[in-house]
Amino acid sequence: MTATDLPLPAPAVAAPGNRSAPSRPVRSLGWRLVGYAALVLAAAGLLLPFYWMVVASLKTNSDVFTIPITWLPDPVVWRNYLDIWQRSDMTTWLGNTLLLSVVVTLLQVVTGSFAAYGFARVRFPGRNALFLAYVGTIAVPWQSYMIPQFILMSKLQLSNTLWSIVALQAFGAFGVFLMKQFYETIPEELSESARVDGLSEFGIYRRIMLPLSRPALASLALLTFVTTWNDYLGPLIYLRSPELRTIQLGLNTFISQYNAEYALIMTGSVLSVLPVAVIFLLGQRHFIEGIATTGLKG
Amino acid sequence: MATLPRTRPRNRRLVSRNTVAGWSFILPNFVGFAVLTLLPVAVLFYVAFTSWNVFGVAEWTGTANFRRMWGDASFWTALRNTVYYTVFHIPLTLAASLGLALLLNRKLRGVRFFRTVAFFPYITSIVAIAIVWNQLFSPEYGPINALLGAVGVDNAPGWTTSSTWSMPAVIIVGTWRYMGYYMLLFLAGLQTIPAQLYEAAETDGASPWQRFVHVTLPGLRHTTFFVTVLLTIESFKVFDLILVMTGGGPGQSTLVLSQYIYQKGFEENQFGYASAVSVVLFAICFTITVIQFMVNKRRNS
């Protein structure tokens, strides 16, 4: 999915500290056990594909599909994790993807938070109409304007360069929306008194809003990074040269090339998911807060 | 600006100063947003009425693209499949994500771990997901059919190799991927229901089911509405999952609108016709969102 995906109105979310949360203690032991059983079952279903991915990546190719199914790799084939670098351009793909994700994230965070301040705190004619244009993209799926967008990008000589992906992802309305939601929770009096003290709007943004909005900035950065890392359609349409391939694109060409190398394919998949998994586990709180405060997806 | 009364020059100065300040904040993002989103959306409605091809030669052809679409069997197949996906994906995901949210909105040990688990599919790339599920769905050796065989299902489905079962397979994966995300929105919604309502219902002797129907569901109305809008758009634009999992096949059994746009535009270079199909996708998503907002407004009043 692209970051151009969607800015959306927030669902009513309880302000932090609102203690109406009905997380009630579960009383009888029986119900508690039923609850656990349901949870364990759900978790197993949710995790099975990941388990399969990791286990298959450590098997020999002929062991991936066996009757009956082997749920543990025997022998454990670590070699797959060495072979993949020789058999594919993994290094190039990961390098491109990392570069793109970092550049897009920086641009999105800077321009998004900047614009959000304008929308949240500066009153000027036409502001609301302009914001409506941002929010109005709610009901417009990217797939419906990818054709004219491609024509425009081609005219700008951007297609088949990494810049096309930067352009595609960096200016999404998502960042503006997320940051605006956050800025509006910061008391107006803070900026008001700074204004009285003679601080310019830019000074207020830099000295007051930015330091206060660190958690929101973290949410935005993480969500943007993951979205860009995972994007498949953008690179599919814009990046034609093999040396420009991102990890998603590369992985998919790898599959069509070696479609019977089941174990190696899983090794590649694990490597493509690993960075995102690590980032998610480290910054989990920010992910969840970012989504809960805006109700948006990245 | 010139029409503002001259008696308030300070105010006018303030307005113009704010306008400059406001725009300078917004501009860096807006330039990108305007060029890459607003402009393409506007251009779409022009290209759809032309025969734009790969050489950039565009001839105004009026409604020719739309008339062609009317008689295009593949277009109707794509539309039908998209609706098929939507009709099952929305209720399944709603039920699964609400169920998960209710389960996880309790003080049980390990709830935080389970929330992480539920969210994990959502942050995993479509390509990796599609590859794994294709292995899981493998008709002869895959674990899913092995499991079905173990519980006594004799002729297990062929999943992505069968034109009957490929769409259900895609729907299952779509639901699996997105339920954690919507669960999060439902969890946020559940936090807003006052605990006193549950206590009052309990004092009145309401059963757990009655509490769910009369307290939880009404309290979640806004969230449910919002989730439904998101789900609808998400379903209608479904694309990359299908592209990697089935490529639209076997035959055209999982061909969806977005993919048809992609085929006509990027594989066959018929930008004009592809744009006309895009207009249909645009119109569907837009209309449904407007209807949902109107229905919700009426229900609220």
Automatic annotation (TrEMBL), chain A:
Instruction: Identify this protein by name.
Output: Carbohydrate ABC transporter membrane protein 2, CUT1 family
Family in the record: Belongs to the binding-protein-dependent transport system permease family.
Q: How does it sit in the membrane?
A: Multi-pass membrane protein
Q: Which UniProt keywords apply?
A: Cell membrane, Membrane, Transmembrane, Transmembrane helix, Transport
Say which species the protein is native to.
Micromonospora saelicesensis
GO biological process: any one?
Answer: transmembrane transport
User: Major location, coarse class?
Assistant: membrane
Entry-linked InterPro entries: MetI-like, MetI-like_sf
UniProtKB/TrEMBL annotation, chain B:
What does the entry list under GO cellular component?
Answer: plasma membrane
Localisation: Cell membrane
| Major location category of this protein | membrane
Q: Which GO terms describe its biological process?
A: transmembrane transport
TM spans, by residue? 20-49, 83-104, 116-136, 238-261, 273-295
Report the residue ranges that make up the ABC transmembrane type-1 domain in this protein: 79-292
CDD domains named among the record's database cross-references: TM_PBP2
Provide the alphabetized UniProt keywords. Cell membrane, Membrane, Transmembrane, Transmembrane helix, Transport
Q: What family does the entry list?
A: Belongs to the binding-protein-dependent transport system permease family.
Q: What is this protein called?
A: ABC transporter permease protein YesP
User: What organism does the record attribute this protein to?
Assistant: Micromonospora saelicesensis
